[in-house]
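quick one before i forget lol
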Amino acid sequence: MTFTRESKLAQRTEFARQYIDGLKKCLDLLSLDQIAQVIGYLEAAIRSGSRIFIIGNGGSAATASHMACDLGKNTFKERYTDPENRFQVMALTDNTPWITALANDLGYDHIFSEQLKNLITRGDLVIAISGSGNSKNILEGIKIAKELGAKVVGLLGFDGGKAKEMVDAFILVESDQYGYVEDIHMVLDHLLTSFFQLAE
C-alpha cells in the first residue's frame, strides 16, 4: 500500500489531534483542591523564609530546574530590589559533580537524600516531582526530608505510587503516559509561579 502526500498529512494531523485531546482530558481531571493545598505550602515557605528544595529524575529533573528558576526569578516581578518576599529555592538536580559522586560512592538511590542531609533544616519544604511516584531516590529523599522535619509536596502521575502516601500534599496527574504527566507538571510549575506573580 502506498500513501499519498495528503494521506500522510492527514495521518500526522490525526495523531496531533489525539495527543492534544488526551492532554486536555488530563488537565480536566486535575483537582483544584490539590492545587490550592500545594499553593498553601508555598505560601507558608515564603512567609517563614524557609528554603525549598526540588527533586526529580529524567524529564522531571528538567522540570525541577525550570521550577527553581521560575520560583526564584519570576515571582514578585515588581520587587527585584526587595530582598524580602523571595523564594529561597534550589533544584538538587543541578550540581552534576555532587550527584555523580554520590551515585558512584553510595548508589543512585541516595543522590537526593544525601544532599538533603547537608542542607535541610526543620520547616523547609521539598517538592518531589515524579511520574510514577516510585523512584527509589525520590522515596529516599522524601523519607529523609520528613525525618529531618521538612514538609514535602509531590507533583505526581499515574496513581501517585508510594510517594502519594508519604508526602504532606500532592497534585496528581491521572495518566499513565509520561508525556502527559510531564507536560502537565510543567503547566503546574507555571500555574504556581503565576499565583505568586499576582500576589500582593
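fyi The chain has a mean pLDDT of 93.
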